[in-house]
Amino acid sequence: MQNSLKRIWALLGVTAAIGAVAATSAVASHKAGPTIVIWTDANRAASVTKVANAWAASKGANIQVVTKDFGSIETALGTVASADAPDVVVAAHDWTGQLAANGLVEPLFPSKTVAAQFPPYTLDAFSYGTAVKKLYGIPVQIENIALLVNTKIAKVPSTFAQLETEALAAKKKNHLSFGICVQQGSGGDAYHMYPFFSGLGGYVFGVNKAGNLNPKDVGVANPTFLKNSKLIDKWNKEGLINSKTDYSVCDSAFTKSQTPFWITGPWAVSDIQKAGVSFKAVQVPPIAKASVPFLGVNGMMVTKFATTHNVDAAAKDLVVNYFSTPSAQTQLAAAGGRAPANVKARATDPILAQFGRAGKGGVPMPNIPQMSSVWSDLGQAWVRSTKGAGAMPAARSFKGAARAISYKIG
Amino acid sequence: MSTATTPTLSVEPPPFRPSLIARGIAFFSGSVGFAIKIALLCASNALAVWAIYVLITHSRWPAVVVLTVATVLIDLVYLAPRRKTLPLKFLIPGTVFLIGFQIIPILFTINVALSNYSTGHILTQGQAIAAIKINSLSPPANGRQYDIAPARDSSGKLVLIMHDETGGKVYVGTPKGLTELPKGDVKLGATGQPTAAKGYTIITGAELFTLDQQLRDFKVPTTGDAAIQPQGTAIAVELKPTLRYDSKRNVFIRITDGTVFHDNGLGSFVSGREELEPGWKTYVGFRNFSQIIHNPLVRKPFLTIFLWTFVFAASTVFFSFAVGLFLAIALDKRGLRFQRLYRSVLVIPWAIPGFLSLLVWAGLLNDDFGVVNNLFGIHVPWLFGGNVFSWLPFISWPRIAVILVSVWLTTPYFFLVSMGSLQSIPSELTEAARVDGGGAWQVFRRVTLPLLLVAVAPLMIASFAFNFNNFNNVYLLTGGGPYNGASSIAGNTDILISYTYKLAIASGKGSDYGLASAVAIIIFILVAGISAISFWKTKSLENVR
User: Fold this and answer.
1) What integer pLDDT is reported at residue A181 of this predicted model?
2) DSSP state, residue B101
3) What's the CA gap between B45 and B57, in Å, rounded?
4) What is the DSSP track for A221-259?
5) Residue A152: what pLDDT?
6) Residue A138's pLDDT is what?
7) Set of chain A residues whose Cβ sits within 8 Å of the Cβ of B164
8) Which of A58, A129, A326, B9 is the most exposed place for a label (fewest CB within 10 A)?
9) Pairing status of strand A127-128 against strand A62-67
């Protein structure tokens, strides 16, 4: 008797708990007006919130900013449940192909006045399509690497020969194992080697008639580049570049004024300034052709989930007509520590302006998904050919890389 | 032992005190235990209700049914009279965790392995068709863009007041078509956007956003099948479809040249080699598995990589065990000073997060700048080098470096395990062996080691299985490299799992999760097979008892 009474009490308790939870979860908070969910990285969360809220306040909308690890946004978009999905995301331009091929982002149509405020290549960087090319993102900030020159111990070189002479002199003087510091490491780094690659006449993908990148045209071992690749073997022999250098080696050598030359991006600036080294950021002098860097453009995209959440129009207004404005761009780019994409929103920071000039004529990193087949092999080709003793002749190394890349793309 | 039973009559027998466990059981079987049980049940029910609520909002009906039934059953089992369901009470928690953490992930992996889930194939077919339709819209040759303002006409119907960006003319757009308005009737804002129009009420504020669905479907037809479509609430663009979907035949037809794109059964509409993006997720049977066999990218380097993976895992376990055991024996000496300190220091490699120490090691072993080479004044190409001896293939410096660091990371584990097992070996046995005239080495070889292996061998097998898939140790140290062959796709130190990652996630056209899952299943079978054989072999070890 005692036992069954206990059980009845227990049943009552359990049902009460169920009731309580059901009641609390059913009362979902509901705000007036549409709520736009934005995914951003931690660095830009504050400024995205501020800018988006300024827009939302005037329009009667709500903004919910969710902070994510930047690199995870691209993959998370493909797996997130619709209810938790974002309507707007901060994105890197080289995700465009992958996201558009997956059907996860919406094409955007800025007005001609808005489009005219952006350098054509920034819009191109966010455009993708195998048949019809479409814009999928509004550029916000631009970044690229440059040749940093320690102006105390070297002159800013105007020709590559000058750069080579100065670099080798410093190498000899300070007993270094490299002339120009550029990070590679055992994993290779095609991004940081791109100025040399483009200077020797290399390109990653050709362009087809429709103006789209053509994954069947891989220019990693094109005839011009192969002809110039003897220079790589020469640089390896004299130790101008060394594939064993990595970021920390360069950071320490440059901040201690051991090497006057470091090819790197704006992320290194704070370290150098802390060390009190005075420097200038310029483009690598032309080799056989202009030694342009890869360009990375970050921006905002509208996801297909905006349609399911019925905030498509609001999200497009926010991204196309508000995040594109000069004042919004200045704030967003400043939070990322880069130059804004909108030409009317000039970077006030003189060093960022130098980096901007160093990126002149640069090539946006290819945004087609096939690029994932290129990074490692192109990087490894450099590693093989610039590892000092026992290095492989560049012509053979890059031909091999081209073969492997075409093989992988299929 | 017989001497210990000498009677001690003078001492009174101690009062009866039940053991700690018995007292614990007595304590928890009363109302305390009952209250804990109810609290746990309430928590599990609350969790279930929450999950059911979420599942209902996502319309996952089968999952809702399964979860409801399971919850009710669990409640019944724990609230029913004691005897009937007693075994179940013990079995259920384990079973729930087994299903949640083992069976569901395995079923999910198999499910993905049988599908084409990859870049360009993550939507459903319906979503893909909708996306292709949107992607096929293209501005016609002299298509126009308009600054728009949604408005209501006198009868309250939704219309668009439109300002042509290039021509400067103003129009009202309805689902019937464009009608030009007199310029004086429409006021334009600074950005060219209509702010007022005679005879129409411009919609502003929050109401604008309630029109989302309507604006998306709003089309102002122009010539042919082109139409002006709003993009947001401020811009409209003239767009013309380039593809037409024939739902009866389930094909897309290109309007310009009549090319027909068929469903190829693999989640794409294709015509010849041309493929429409995006595709959709669908089941492709054993295609991923047959691809593994037929794809030269997998087939060609497979044997070398498999051999190296095996050598890597086996030698990591062997050397870690050897070093760990040596240290355990060395520090086992009684009366050793600072014994605890030594032991704590030796556990450090295990206590530091592996990904951190691996990156540190990558720096230490750097061929030109690493501390290791600089300290000893040597020039060993740890990370970039080739074969150690030109006449001996397979053994390369990077491979040695990878094993070295893995041993450093794994030794503390075997040190701890061996230390524990050594103490459990009865000293009578070793003493007896000594009395029988065995030397130190003989005693170790014939008595200590066999007894130790009984306890440690299963752990070695587990460690082998773990190292077989030790992605971090390889990827963070060498990135799988170096790539010594000109066109080698697999690096010198790539193990199966890191090569799979390169092949399926960072290759071809983006990520191929289907292929990755298929390889994962094959690796699982390999590891399970090797472990099963090893366990079967270790049974013979137990004969020493």
Assistant:
1) 95
2) I
3) 18
4) T-HHHHHHTHHHHHHHHHTSS-TT--HHHHHHHHHTTS-
5) 93
6) 96
7) none
8) B9
9) unpaired
Report residue A233 CA to chain centroid gap: 30
Q: pLDDT digits over B86-104, tens only?
A: 888 888 888 888 988 889 9
Residues of A in Cβ contact (< 8 Å) with B231: 108-109, 316, 320
Q: What is the DSSP letter of B391?
A: T
Q: Is the ipTM of this complex over 0.90?
A: no
- How far is A205 from B59, CA to CA, in rounded Å? 44
**Helix and strand element counts for chain B (H, E):** 20, 18
8-state DSSP, B123: B
What letters, b where the CB count within 10 A reaches 16 and e where it falls short, cover B81-116? eeeebeeeeeebeeeeeeeeeeeeeeeebeebbbbb
Give the torsion sign (CA, A300, A306, A307, A310): negative
Cβ(B277)–Cβ(A101) under 8 Å? yes
A375-385 helix and A190-199 helix, angle to the nearest 10 degrees: 70
Mean pLDDT, to the nearest integer, of B317-345?
87
Nearest chain B Cα distance for residue A74, angstroms: 11
Distance CA A102, CA A98 (A): 6
Residue with tokens 């059913």: A26
The minimal CB distance from B53 to the residues A25, A113, A246 is found for A25
Q: How far is it, in rounded angstroms, from Cα A324 to Cα A254?
A: 37
Of the segments A80-89, A127-136, B13-22, which one has the largest average pLDDT value? A80-89
Task: Report d(CA B147, CA B160) in Å as an integer.
Answer: 10
The answer, yes or no, to whether residue B368 has pLDDT greater than 50, is: yes
Bridge partners for B173 per DSSP:
B160, B178
Q: Which tens digit of pLDDT belongs to each residue from B169-192?
A: 899 999 988 888 888 888 888 778
Note which residues in 128-167 of chain B have CB less than 8 A from chain A.
128, 131-132, 134-138, 145, 147, 165-166
Query: How does residue B3 score in pLDDT terms, banded at 50, 70 and 90?
Result: very low
CB spacing of B119 vs A113 below 8 angstroms: no
Q: Cα(A403)–Cα(A221) distance, rounded to whole angstroms?
A: 9
| Cα–Cα dist B418/A268, whole Å | 47
Give the global pTM: 0.83
Size of interface A-B (CB pairs under 8 A): 261
Q: How many CA atoms lie less than 13 Å away from A77 in the CB half-sphere? A: 33
Per-residue model confidence (pLDDT) at position B331: 85
User: Token digits for B382?
Assistant: 């740890």
Would you place residue A64 in the very low, low, confident or very high pLDDT band (cuts 50, 70, 90)? very high
* Contact of B236 with B145, CB cutoff 8 Å: yes
Copy the structure tokens of residue B461.
């097998």
The angle subtended at Cα B366 by Cα A265 and Cα B348, nearest 5°, is: 105
Residue B372 burial class via C-beta count within 10 angstroms: exposed 0-12, middle 13-18, buried 19 and up: middle
Which residues fall within 8 angstroms of residue A264, CB to CB, at 6 or more apart? A145, A146, A148, A182, A183, A192, A247, A250
Q: pLDDT-based confidence at B468, cuts 50/70/90?
A: very high
If we measure between CA atoms, which residue out of A100, A302, A88, A137 comes closest to residue B119? Answer: A100
| Chain B hits for A387, Cβ within 8 Å | 367, 384, 482
B2 confidence band (pLDDT: 50, 70, 90): very low
Strand ranges inside B139-268, DSSP E: 145-152, 158-164, 170-174, 177-181, 186-188, 194-197, 201-202, 220-221, 227-231, 235-241, 243-246, 251-254, 260-263
Q: Which of A11, A311, A399 sits opposite B486 (nearest CB)?
A: A399
Burial letters for B209-223: b for 16+ Cβ neighbours within 10 Å, e otherwise? bebbeebbebebebe
SS3 B30: coil
Which residues of A are less than 8 Å from B45 in CB distance?
Answer: 14, 17-18, 21
